[in-house]
Task: inverse folding
């Protein structure tokens, strides 16, 4: 007989006995057994509670015995790569290093990145709603960019054309497979050419530059929070406060690869900026996906870059710091330094 059944039976007997004891006494007579009855009922309640706890523990042990043990999480092992190139064709020599890792709370990496110094192309990409561990949207974005740079002559418009090409290819793929229509991608690109350094991004991947001892953001996330001024004039004044609260609480992207931008008309081209900077020896650029810069604040990023002059070690240290924060997003950083 189980603990629960025994306790229930004892409590029922105590209640029955107390009822008989109290009913046998005259209506106006004192009832000396009342205190005893109360004590017995209290003891019975405690016994029932104890029995319930024991029953749940027994059930939990039985469930645990029949459950397969959880597989241990793999150790932190980011993919780290470096590349260097010599001066030529109007470009200074340089060095680049990347590090990328799955999130500490996920089992696959949704990011993609690439270093292609012969084409002067360096890029990182992330995705929202992966197509699967074997084919995230970010991989296709980087592959399309690389293909475009390999088949298109260098020029001021090559970067913008490549991003438009990647976006359009992903939009068409989503149309073919409606099951992937919830996917979107973010991208950050650094392109080197005789005309200088070009920087562009879509979504929430970022580009920073270390300059005069400061970490200077060169991009701003395409979110409702950052682009509220574009949409607030069209909001009913009665709903403005509710909208502003929604903007503060939700980091919703307004522009991304593979999806129509918020507020854009059907068939309208993706809107993004391409910034141009002079080629300066010693300049250091950091490209990152949200798994890094959303969990590691700028002052920590700068401290690691200051105290770790070797790019490969610095890239690994940055990703390691983010991994320890146990975020949900994959982590990728790419460092480019002009010599």
Result:
């Amino acid at each position: 007989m189980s603990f629960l059944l025994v306790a229930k039976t004892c409590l029922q007997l105590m209640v029955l006995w107390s009822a008989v004891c109290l009913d046998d006494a005259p209506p106006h007579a004192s009832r000396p057994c009342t205190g005893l009855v109360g004590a017995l009922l209290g003891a019975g309640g405690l016994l029932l509670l104890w029995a319930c706890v024991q029953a749940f523990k027994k059930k939990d042990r039985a469930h645990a015995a029949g459950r397969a043990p959880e597989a241990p999480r793999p150790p932190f092992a980011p993919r780290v790569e470096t590349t260097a190139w010599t001066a030529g064709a109007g470009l200074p020599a340089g060095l680049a290093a990347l590090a990328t890792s799955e999130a500490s709370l996920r089992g696959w990496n949704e990011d993609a990145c690439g270093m292609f110094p012969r084409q002067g192309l360096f890029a990182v990409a992330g995705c929202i709603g992966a197509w699967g561990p074997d084919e995230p949207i970010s991989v296709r974005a980087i592959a399309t960019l690389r293909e475009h740079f390999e088949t298109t002559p260098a020029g001021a418009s090559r970067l913008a054309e490549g991003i438009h090409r990647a976006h359009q290819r992903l939009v068409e793929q989503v149309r073919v497979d409606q099951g992937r229509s919830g996917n979107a991608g973010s991208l950050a690109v650094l392109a080197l050419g005789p005309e200088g350094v070009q920087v562009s991004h879509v979504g929430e991947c970022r580009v920073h530059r270390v300059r005069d001892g400061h970490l200077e953001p060169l991009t701003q996330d395409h979110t409702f929070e950052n682009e509220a001024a574009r949409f607030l004039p069209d909001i009913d004044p009665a709903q403005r406060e509710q909208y502003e609260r929604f903007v503060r609480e939700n980091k919703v992207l307004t522009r991304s690869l593979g999806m129509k931008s918020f507020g854009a008309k059907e068939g309208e081209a993706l809107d993004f900026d391409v910034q141009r900077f002079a080629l300066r020896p010693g300049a250091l650029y950091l490209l990152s996906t949200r798994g890094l810069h959303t969990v590691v604040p700028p002052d920590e990023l700068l401290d690691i870059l200051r105290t770790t002059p070797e790019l490969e070690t610095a890239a690994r240290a940055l990703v390691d710091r983010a991994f320890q924060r146990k975020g949900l997003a994959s982590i990728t950083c790419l460092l480019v330094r002009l010599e």
